[in-house]
Amino acid sequence: MLKTNSSNATLIIDALQYPLPGRRWFEEWRVGGVSCVHVTVAIWENASETLQRLALWRQAFADHGDLVAVALTGNDIEAIASSGRTAVVLGFQNTAPIEHDIELIGTFRDLGVRIMQLTYNLQNYIGAGYWEANDGGLSSRFGRQAVDEMNRVGVLVDLSHCGERTTLDAIEYSSRPVSITHSNAREHVLNPGFGPGRLKTTEALKALSARGGVLGVCPNRSLVANGTKATLEDFTELVARSVDLMGVDAIGLGTDYCAGHPAAVRTWWRYARWSREKAEIPSFAPHEGWQDWFRSPADFPNIVQGLRHRGFSEIETQKILGGNWLRLFNEAFEPAQRAKAVA
Amino acid sequence: MLKTNSSNATLIIDALQYPLPGRRWFEEWRVGGVSCVHVTVAIWENASETLQRLALWRQAFADHGDLVAVALTGNDIEAIASSGRTAVVLGFQNTAPIEHDIELIGTFRDLGVRIMQLTYNLQNYIGAGYWEANDGGLSSRFGRQAVDEMNRVGVLVDLSHCGERTTLDAIEYSSRPVSITHSNAREHVLNPGFGPGRLKTTEALKALSARGGVLGVCPNRSLVANGTKATLEDFTELVARSVDLMGVDAIGLGTDYCAGHPAAVRTWWRYARWSREKAEIPSFAPHEGWQDWFRSPADFPNIVQGLRHRGFSEIETQKILGGNWLRLFNEAFEPAQRAKAVA
Description:
The structure is a homodimer. Helix content of chain A is 39%, strand content 12%. By secondary structure, chain A is α/β, with parallel strands linked by helices. Chain A binds chain B through residues 44, 46, 48, 96, 99-104, 121-126, 128, 131-137, 139-143, 145-146, 272-277, and chain B through 44, 46, 48, 96, 99-104, 121-126, 128, 131-137, 139-143, 145-146, 272-277.
């Protein structure tokens, strides 16, 4: 019998992980008492390839229903967590899966996808990623119509890897609150491994919270000062400063924990098939490359303890650990008409 | 026996048509004495769908080998024309077929594709089209690498539907001359049906010719003043002013003749699957919607006569009718290493 923290009433939501769908990772979630994980299903896969990735998750839910279940609504998250399992929210880290077909947004939502990041590092039909030298913003034709459609059918927009102008445009253009599931405030982090462009400006973060959005503060070595040497106190201090910047209702967690992938897959995330000039991507064995207080999601209790130790009240801690994401997911996953009817 | 002008020594190259692959159109080419046509194979089709479009052309070459043959080199064009048939150059009006896969540029070249327009009206992975409110230029990652790859394998870059900054960037970035197969000079055309954005600025056209590129001057009703009422003299005057602007070595013809498609297909070109807000696209029966001196490519002899009547010398006329395109195609369709070895 696995030792779990499922009896813990605190809802813990991790707004970004990219695991292979496998029992090993699901068991870590249970050990860590993780109520819900937003997992990445696809980054560069086209529509047809994405169907195959979704089918792998479908099979995982069938095989490991004692540990995990797919969540289609905020209520699902609470119900699955109450049953002592981890709720899985399916998402894309790019809009490559929808190619340039507005109908595929609703089609993939029908298949369970609830979060779509508009761009992954590069420019696409919808906007630009942070790796581009120039960011023309949310594209004026398909970009706007795609956000309208996500708003309409109930898909949460994610802007984590987008460029600055695309981020600002999408926050302003979207009629419903959006998310930055895994990033940090640029003003709080010196010399991040991914470079400052991957972090968010104060202007973008203030706009995000002003429109009801949520930021997933991220302990990933490449997004914090001091990398793997960052202490738990460094991380909870980063959370506290993010709360000061955006308000306690706009802050959640998004670990960007991506374990179990071979080096070739990590290279694929960066370079896919668009480049032959593939830089070597460092590979980590599971539980390597993370701070000693967060070797894996099984260590989530350390973060819970750290937040309490930092002086957050119980209600603040619960908002940061999962309450804010639950509120946003509850709202954003509903189709627009139903969301209006409920409000 | 079809009456043809194939004995005419003048090489006539039309740098853009989008016909359905069918005998009716091939017969018009022969009547008009057209030596070579660059045809559009795909606009919004993804890689898999484009394979199906190419297969239709493959079958057409098998079925109608008495009238047409595929041209893979400039020499092919001359040989096919000498045999009394029309040489067909295969091209894309968008980079949707290559998705975001740099290898697919060479793969589609292996299948006969020799010209790729970087964007069709909208933004994509590589750049922005003229319909976008913002054009961030040739994208700094995949955009540049895609142009490098087209340069390397021998695919001619086409910028006809691109936005201004993408057009300027690609002309400057490409190590080999590029093309604008079907557009006109913005300074020469008032109130074009497609709007001024679809026409090219003086800055872009001067940059194009300075780098050895060629413009296909276009009689399409939506790209000229007075639409279907434009006279042959209006058109030859437009050619003459284009020659004044860019030099006689930079001017060819690109009719944008797109016959035989039902209205639903014309709507698809504009809106594909990216939009549900589809404006009604006017549909034309074959030979409708064109000036009375160019009801179809069978009327190419009228343009030949018009150019001579306008006062172009024989050598100038031959350059404009096909010589300039032949020079550029000869150069651009060769892989970079072979092109260097020949030079």
